[in-house]
């Protein structure tokens, strides 16, 4: 009977609350992460991101609320066996080598991972040539890379990464981005938390923004970023061409620059079709530039909006 049902979301949580003495860290947080989705958890320092992640993984007991991980209660060790986790602050056994650390964590997860696959996992995080070196001699960024390998080694269905790139150099960040895209293409679900908004924008399907323990906004990037703009530098614009521009979206003009506000749900052919039609109408097209407000700008807008108000 159960076979025909759609798979439960990778993460489902509802009404999470956590107080530390008089300080409320998490205040009625609910969200879902679908299977195969890459979701970013964003928000300022102290917003409650790490606390939410720890509640999801059963590392912090919430005062209220429910969590299902891969369709099972978070307390169930079977649910956690399919989850890879990179903590925000961690230290592995300094006397173990990188290869031994991975072998240990695969064993702890109860998954038989052949040595070749473990080596490959170290290679994906750029530590292939340091496999036999002790963790105690690793730099901060190398430890973070090892942490990523630990999160990935037991072939998880859900990967939770608390600031996976905070210690990485620019190449390391780009590598992690590729790694996340590779996970996405393999339908592995990722929940990640990062202050590098540009990165989140590039890899995440959806974001959940936390502020002072509450969900301040959530949605797909298209929903949060709304309309896209298209800036065109044109001359010889006839009245018919102006009509064609207006049909694409609301137009504003400054000199020879026309800015068209494209609807969020436009199809991929909208821009090339518009340009082709303009050329056919005799317009000289000097430049076509996409414009979009960045996630960073949107995030700042949301966080600066009326403090304490309902901003959902
Ligand atoms: N173990 C703890 N004891 C007391 N207070 C805590 C504890 N853990 C977190 N807090 C408090 O809960 C709030 C949320 O902290 P949390 O670590 O979840 O924030 P965050 O969003 O992950 O921040 P950052 O971006 O700095 O990592 C903060 O006010 C913090 O001081
Ligand atoms: Mg944190």
UniProtKB/TrEMBL annotation:
<protein>
    <submittedName>
        <fullName>ABC transporter ATP-binding protein</fullName>
    </submittedName>
</protein>
<keyword id="KW-0067">ATP-binding</keyword>
<dbReference type="GO" id="GO:0005524">
    <property type="term" value="F:ATP binding"/>
</dbReference>
<comment type="similarity">
    <text>Belongs to the ABC transporter superfamily.</text>
</comment>
<dbReference type="InterPro" id="IPR017871">
    <property type="entry name" value="ABC_transporter-like_CS"/>
</dbReference>
<dbReference type="GO" id="GO:0016887">
    <property type="term" value="F:ATP hydrolysis activity"/>
</dbReference>
<keyword id="KW-0547">Nucleotide-binding</keyword>
<dbReference type="InterPro" id="IPR027417">
    <property type="entry name" value="P-loop_NTPase"/>
</dbReference>
<feature type="domain" description="ABC transporter">
    <location>
        <begin position="11"/>
        <end position="237"/>
    </location>
</feature>
<dbReference type="InterPro" id="IPR003439">
    <property type="entry name" value="ABC_transporter-like_ATP-bd"/>
</dbReference>
<keyword id="KW-0813">Transport</keyword>
<dbReference type="InterPro" id="IPR003593">
    <property type="entry name" value="AAA+_ATPase"/>
</dbReference>
<dbReference type="Pfam" id="PF00005">
    <property type="entry name" value="ABC_tran"/>
</dbReference>
